Amino acid sequence: MWINSAGRKYIRAMHPGISPQEVFVKGSEMWGAMVDEVKFVWQEAARTAMADYKKKGAVRSVASL
């Protein structure tokens, strides 16, 4: 989730012209260097987003019956 929101924009701003593959590599390096407290915020956001997605998917499944 981090790389899809704040991370990609930050990397592209710091490294103009970088390829998509290099963005992923830089993002992986940055994620690995992050302290656990910062990662936790993004991991919680991802858990919440997944729960919302699954809940909406269940609603769509029932609605299509």
Automatic annotation (TrEMBL):
GO terms for cellular component: nucleus. It comes from the Eukaryota. Residues 8-56 form the HMG box domain. Gene3D superfamilies: High mobility group box domain (1.10.30.10). InterPro entries: HMG_box_dom (IPR009071), HMG_box_dom_sf (IPR036910). Pfam families: HMG_box (PF00505). This is GD15641. It comes from Drosophila simulans (Fruit fly). The lineage of its organism: Eukaryota, Metazoa, Ecdysozoa, Arthropoda, Hexapoda.
